[in-house]
Every structure is written in C-alpha cells, then in structure tokens.
Design brief:
Length: 143
C-alpha cells in the first residue's frame, strides 16, 4: 500500500473514517488518506473490531516519519479498544500535529478499568514526542 495518494487532497479539511485497526490494509489505507491530506484540520475516527486475532506490530512509526499534520487542530476517536496499533496511532498523530488543540478519545465499553489505567499511564505519563504540548487530551468512558 502506498503511503500517499497520487493526487493530494489539499482541499480536505474534515475527515471522518470508520477503521478496523486489527487489519493491516484498513490501517494502511486510513494512513494513506490522512498522509495525502496536508490541510486536514479535524480528524474523526470510529474504531471497530472484528474479534479476530491481531498482531501488535501493525504500525511501524518509522514508516511515517514524513507524515505532515501541520494544520490538524482536533482529533476525535470513538470506540477505542486500547489495542497496541490504536495506541501507536495516537502517539503518531500527537507527534506530528503541532497545532493540535484537542485530542478526545472515547473508550469502547469492552475496555476494563485496569486496561484504562494502563492506557492512561502509557499515553499521559510515559514520555513520547508531542508536537503540541498545549493540546487538551481527554479520555472518556462511553455513556
């Protein structure tokens, strides 16, 4: 799967995707569209799972070192399952979005309190590169 589309989606400012992060082709396709949208300001993802076994190594951050999200201001993720590929994706977006003001994650109902606590430690306490240190980072449980 290419990392960029042959034509830039320079007019695309809002993107709303449903993605299964357990499938390499869906994850690669989503990243290809995002990477081809240099003026993207709002990214909204609904994550779903298919109850299949998955590899934890679906996303290699080194492959996306050239990702440019200089205009991204808001990231919204719903139904976050706390898979390794989802967490790595969030870290990638946070590292490549210098203007990010808000990152909101709504957890899937299947995420236990223990998993949530581990995720909070991984995303909020462990150091990883963040392009926008002032971004509000909100993690919620579903209603």
């Amino acid at each position: 799967m290419p990392q960029m589309l042959p034509t830039s989606l320079h007019r695309l400012k809002f993107l709303d995707l449903d993605v299964c992060f357990q499938k390499q082709d869906e994850l690669s396709s989503a990243l290809c569209v995002i990477n081809s949208s240099p003026n993207l300001e709002n990214l909204s993802l609904t994550m779903f799972c298919n109850d299949e076994e998955t590899s934890d190594n679906l996303l290699d951050l080194q492959d996306y070192s050239g990702l440019n999200l200089d205009h991204l201001k808001e990231l919204e993720i719903t139904s976050f399952h706390n898979y390794a590929s989802e967490t790595e994706f969030v870290k990638l977006i946070m590292a490549k979005s210098p203007l990010l003001k808000k990152a909101q994650i709504e957890l899937s109902g299947c995420v236990s309190v223990d998993e949530e606590n581990k995720m909070l430690r991984d995303l909020l306490l462990l150091p990883f590169p963040r392009a926008s240190p002032s971004a509000n980072f909100i993690i919620e449980r579903p209603i």
